[in-house]
Amino acid sequence: MKTTSVSAATPVSTSSPNGTATLAPNRVESIDILRALTMVLMIFVNDLWSLTNIPAWLEHVERGVDGIGLADIVFPAFLFIVGLSLPFAVDARRKKGDTDWQIVQHVLVRTVILLIMGVFLVNGETLNAAATGMPRHIWNPLCCLCFILISNVFPISTNKNIVLGARAVGLISLLILAIVYRGGDDDNIQFFGPQWWGILGLIGWSYLASGLITIYSRNKIVPVLIGWAFFAVLSMLYHARLVPGVLSFIPAPILGGTLAGLTMGGVLTTTVFQYFRQRQQNRQMILTFLGMAAVWIVLSLITRPYWGLAKLGATPAWLFLCSAFTILGLTVIYWVADINGKASWFAIVKPAGTATLLCYLIPYFAYSAMRLAGLHLPDMLLSGGIGLLKSLLFALLCVGITAALTRWGIRLKI
Question: Is residue 1's pLDDT more than 90?
Fold first, then answer.
């Protein structure tokens, strides 16, 4: 996941030092906009826990139920968008002169950072306040503050000792938080550890698998298509219990195929995008995107009777259907923003697409601040349509705070 802005490119071809075709770093507005809208939607659906009397289709569908709600399409969209950004990010590093091995190292480092962040936030979900010595609404923002200290891009004029000091404080504080952490019930206290990888960790594993394929496919459609097909088939084999047990050492987010398949769908989409944009064939590109969406919808219909349609089960039908939803969303936004030049229509959410990680962390601070201040909204603001409006305004408030922090020099990059 690109945590600051992710550059997308126009069709101007150049060559990297190693001879790989790359694209000039002009922006494709629709990718940033799609990422921004997805982040706003993520904050919105994550706030629905605070509401009552809202339509069931907005929320997550329970485990074991065949179906999905609005909340169940947000995370896969984000995984898909990570894939959309990958070819552009790899091209940008090649233009700077990086070798394949240097890019692989970069992918590995970012993966580790995402895994660490994910594990810390996951542990906060099961924190035992009494045993740890602090409540969850203190633990979570402290972790997020450490993330910011470690990954903030300080102005060039900032004294190096200040930068190193901030990073050291962040790292040492995270270590202390991990040491003092206690989770679980009083009769079953647990120490800090990877209970599961969390949203950021799952993104990290998918980013790793797709990033390596992106690097070595070198913007060629056939290798990327094979990579996507591999994970799509792997998803079906995994649910059919046909994956050999000897492969169990591979992390489940990769071995299961579905999550990496979503990200590879984004890589495939951008590879197709690059092909048509280089030839200035917008009409053919849009028709191809619509055709890809139709194929994915058909695949979802075919696989649903076997394994169901479910986010919590990460089923193949969920992979295909959410890929279709996301590419259709991209197509519409591309037509509006890039072809017709109406990107300004989405200006209000832009910071969520260019400072995405920071925006993702803001709710942790917001919920903590309300708890510490003893603020409680009236019941009338937590129910029905008014409650939904509250959650939407909360999401937009988080975007506004992100914009302000960015102007004040808080810019995260991993």
Answer: no
Contact 322, 76 (CB under 8 A): yes
User: Phi then psi for 185, rounded to 5 degrees?
Assistant: -80, 165
Inform me whether the pLDDT recorded for 184 exceeds 70: yes
* Residue whose pair of structure tokens reads 């951008």 in the numeric block: 270
pTM: 0.90
Tell me the per-residue pLDDT of 329-375, one tens digit each, with 9 for 90 and over: 999 999 999 999 999 999 999 999 999 999 999 999 999 999 999 88
Distance CA 349, CA 170 (A): 29
Question: Is the pLDDT reported for residue 31 higher than 50?
Answer: yes
C-alpha dist (Å) from residue 282 to 173, 214, 288, 377: 50, 23, 10, 48
Q: Which amino acid is at 38?
A: T
Q: Which amino acid is located at 132 in the chain?
A: T
Residue 250 DSSP one-character state: S
Q: What are phi and psi of 220, to 5 degrees?
A: -100, 130
Residues 123-158: b if buried by 16+ CB within 10 A, e if exposed? bbeebbeeebeeebbbbbbbbbbbbbbbbbeeeeee
AA identity, residue 45? V
b/e per residue 208-228 (b: at least 16 CB within 10 A)? bbbbbbbbebbbeeeebbebb
Res 6 pLDDT > 50:
no
d(CA 253, CA 210): 12
Q: Are 177 and 120 in contact (CB under 8 A)?
A: yes
Length of the chain: 414
Which DSSP letter does residue 13 get?
Answer: E
Q: Where does the pLDDT of residue 286 fall: very low under 50, low under 70, confident under 90, or very high at 90 and above?
A: very high
Distance CA(215)–CA(125), nearest Å, equals 35
- Cα separation, 90 vs 8, in Å, equals 11
Residues 262/80, Cβ–Cβ less than 8 Å: yes
